[in-house]
Specification:
Elements: E1 2-11, E2 14-24, E3 29-34, H1 40-47, E4 57-60, E5 63-64, H2 70-73, E6 78-81, H3 93-100, H4 109-119, H5 121-125, H6 136-148, E7 154-158, H7 166-181, E8 185-189, H8 193-199, E9 202-207, E10 210-216, H9 217-221, H10 224-231
Parallel strand pairs: 3-8, 3-9, 6-7, 7-8
Antiparallel strand pairs: 1-2, 1-4, 4-5, 9-10
Helix pairs in contact: 3-6
Length: about 230
Amino acid sequence: MLKVEHINVYYGAIHAVKDISFEVSTGEIVTLIGANGAGKSTVLNTVAGLLHSRTGSISFLNQPISNTPAHKMVSKGLALVPEGRRIFLQLTVEENLEMGAYTQPASSIAPGIADIFDRFPRLKERRRQVAGTLSGGEQQMLAIGRALMSNPKLLMLDEPSMGLAPILVEQIFDIIKELNKAGTTILLIEQNAQMALSIANRGYVLETGHIVTSADASVLLNDGSVKKAYLGG
C-alpha cells in the first residue's frame, strides 16, 4: 500500500532522515520505534506531504505521491493523526468531526459522525462540548475520530499515547487494534515501544535518522538489543 524509498529530509543544514526505505502492506499495523529525535515524526510528516524529501520516492496505492500537497493527501485515502492531537480547540466535538470530512460528499457526513459516536460513546456524550475543555484521552479520541471521517485507507498515528494515563493508553491501543480489524491499515509512531510492538505486525527501529533494524514485531519484542534500548529490559 505504501512504499517509501531512499528519502532524505533536512531541516536547514540538519540531516534529519537519512536514506530511509520501508513499506506498509494492506491490512498491516506497522510501527516505527526509536528514541526522541530519531526522526520518526519527520518520516510521518514527509509521507503526509507536510515535509519534502530531497531524494527518493514515496508511492501510495502504486501512485507516486512525493510532490502531492498535504491537503490533497486526504482525498487519496491517507490520514494523519498528528503528534499533540492538534484538534480545533474552539470548535465543538461535532464541528471537529465535520472538519475531518471536508473531502467527503455532504450525504456521508451524518452517517460518518454516527459511526464515530458508535465507536467512541464518550464523544457522543460530549458532542456539543467545546473540544478545548475535553480531557487528554478524549482529545486523542477526537483526533482519531476526525481523521476517520475522511474514510482513510491508511491511518497514520504520531505518538497517540503521549501524555496519557496508563489506563487511557490501553484504551487507545484497543481502539487502534479494532480499527485495524475493521480493515484500516495503520502506520504507528510511538515512544511506548512495548505497546506498539505488542499490537503491530512488523516494526522498524530508527536511530539518529537511520533505520537500524526491521523485523516482525514479535521478533523485535524478544531482541536483546531492542529490549535493552527501548523496552527497559
